[in-house]
Amino acid sequence: MNTDKTYVADIDRSLYDFRFDDRDSYKVKSGLTEDIIREISREKGDPDWMRDFRLASLHIFEETAMPPWGPDISGLDMNNIVTYVRPNTERMHTRWEDVPKDILTTFEKLGIPQSEREALAGVGAQYDSELVYHSVKKEVAEQGVVYTDIESALHGPYADMIREHFMTLVPPTDHKFAALHGAVWSGGSFVYVPPGVTVEIPLQSYFRLNAPGAGQFEHTLIIVDEGANLHFIEGCSAPKYNVANLHAGCVELFVGKNAKLRYSTIENWSKNMYNLNTKRARVEEGGSIEWVSGSFGSHVSYLYPTSLLTGRKASCTFTGVTFAGAGQNLDTGCQVLHEAPDTTSTVNTRSISKSGGVSTFRSAIVVTKDAEGSKSAVSCQSLMLDDISRSDTIPAMDIRTAKADIGHEAKIGRISDDAVFYLMSRGVSEEEAKALIVSGFAENVSKELPLEYAVEMNNLIRLEMKGAIG
Hints:
alpha/beta; ten-stranded mixed β-sheet
């Protein structure tokens, strides 16, 4: 009899692996050509400047090399990726009962309508390449808050604001997949919070990729004006297929003077997903950006939210957790650029790896010569649950002024046998002891999440603990 066959199971993704037939959807051909880009632009009803922007981005993509570092993405072949899939619905709806039944069933299983009723000020729901539902509470709209799909905003009173900001924080020249995004982007949300307005309860966007062999390229643009306050939540998932899927979205956040934005993400992509997402925030004087990030899915991830602290006393807080199981190589982290005096940043991350999963934390803290009086503290801790997994920490610090206070702490290890023994000596089973340790390890992240997402995270990483004897 084997009495020590106790293990942490991989994350149970059955909640996300259901799917519906996409035979009634409209798709462009797989691959990436100028004709496909023009077809997407016609489908979206782009203004001329956006069509030209897409075509210019395509040329940049073709001329830009693949990233020479990070996890292997040679299994991603753009010739096999469908870049635009319109679900079986002619338009975006503002009532859930008007959404096609199979799409509505998808979001009901994911709990989105219930969350909207109970805890959210507004919701945008994207299915494949299009938003199928978008709504904002009347009292929030009456504050002057704009929350809509970005395509509608392109043709409305905020069109000039979109054009002024679109892909200025993340230009297509930034890297190959930013250029890809600029060429094929579709869907996503636009948020504008007027000066001095506090949105008391969060807004949320949820992205669901249903089609096999497809990509999702939503664009999120949020502008929080002077003295305003917003919490925005992003969720995403996809069923598992035996072909590669791609996510290359883009998030651009503009945080005004003395404004505050919290951006929370829980990512549950399936293990055939290449998650090559780009997120960036610019923070003006006295403003603050808070990132809360949970990365649990995808086959390969490249994900490094970036904060540009451009105004005096601007601040950034980044809190993240990553769980890499079998077949996963998750390369995550963040970047902070201190570009003004007295700016501050705090980075606190946890990563867990098991069953041969690879977790890499990659950070970059840059303090320019003009950022005197700046402070930054980076703490990253990694927990490996077996002897075949891997965890790496790759911190970079570029400090160009002597008048700064910068600190970094990293810790990598396994579950302590002593801690397990101590808990077992108090009557706790071995599997419960390990569950408590893993839960406590990730607590600093879960306590920062909205309640329903904290529960989901705990279900995902914490207590997928199973014991077997014999």
